[in-house]
Amino acid sequence: MAKAPLTTGPQCLSTRAAFTLTELLVAVAVLGVIVSLLVPVFGRAREKVRLAMCKANLRALGQGLNAYVAANRRHMPVAEKLDNPHRALVEALHGRFVGEAETFYCPSETKPDLRYSEANFAARRIGYFYFCCRRATPNRAVSTFLRWDVKYPRILDTRVGSDAWVMSDTWVGGEPTAHHWYHKGVNYLTLGGEVGMIQNQPRAAFR
User: Fold this and answer.
1) How far, in Å, CA of 157 to CA of 64, rounded?
2) How far, rounded to the nearest angstrom, does the alpha carbon of residue 116 sit from its chain's CA centroid?
3) How much is the mean pLDDT over the chain?
4) Starting from the edge strand earliest in sequence, which strands make up the sheet with 128-130, in order?
5) What pLDDT, on a 0 to 100 scale, did the predictor assign at position 182?
6) Do residues 197 and 64 make contact, with C-beta atoms less than 8 angstroms apart?
7) What letter does residue 76 receive in the DSSP assignment?
8) DSSP character for 66?
9) Is pLDDT at 13 greater than 50 in this prediction?
10) How far apart are CA 159 and CA 122, in angstroms?
């Protein structure tokens, strides 16, 4: 009786190679799903770190302002308007009361004119709103609430309520804030030195 021919090497290798390619494609697909699930997790973890750094910056600025006020008989530096540039604030604090230039910037901010750079710092463009100011701002992108409903001049000193906002992350109408994992979330500093966060609609919490 004639024996059936044995399966030769090339055919066996071809079948095994095809199976290996299928396994590889499945593994790549599974890896892609895992990465897509982990990216938001890592993104939130990084943002929590930046959020903590932003709060630390505001806390350091609050301490600097308190030291400045103590040295200047209750008077805080007064800005021309609530948004940039903030020459009076920076020149009052930097060097003597606040050491690092990066302290004036939110680490989550992505807008080029609000991030730390030597050029921005030299121009006194910082990453926060400063609410001790003579007037609002002509910038129509800034919330109409800040431009029309807040009374100016807004001069803050130790006689004002301790819950009054002194500084905060920037927020403009129709755009996400620096902490984009939160809906309109901003960190803020009060006159009493407290640092907090509003995760939704800072307008409602502004004091």
Assistant:
1) 14
2) 12
3) 85
4) 128-130, 165-169, 186-190, 195-198
5) 81
6) no
7) P
8) H
9) no
10) 32
**What is the structure's pLDDT at 6?**
53
Separation of alpha carbons 56 and 42, rounded Å: 21
Q: Where are the domains of the chain?
A: 53-205
Phi then psi for residue 83, to 5 deg, are: -110, -175
In 3D, which of 187, 164, 183 has the Cα closest to residue 175?
A: 183
- Straight-line distance from the first to the last Cα atom of the chain, in angstroms, rounded to the nearest whole number: 100
Structure tokens at 180: 């984009």
Structure tokens given for 152: 């100016």
**DSSP 8-state class, residue 94:** B
Reported as a single tens digit per residue, the pLDDT across 103-140 is 999 999 999 999 999 999 999 999 999 999 999 999 99
Query: Which pLDDT tens digit goes with each residue over 136-180?
Result: 999 999 988 999 999 999 999 878 889 999 999 999 888 889 898
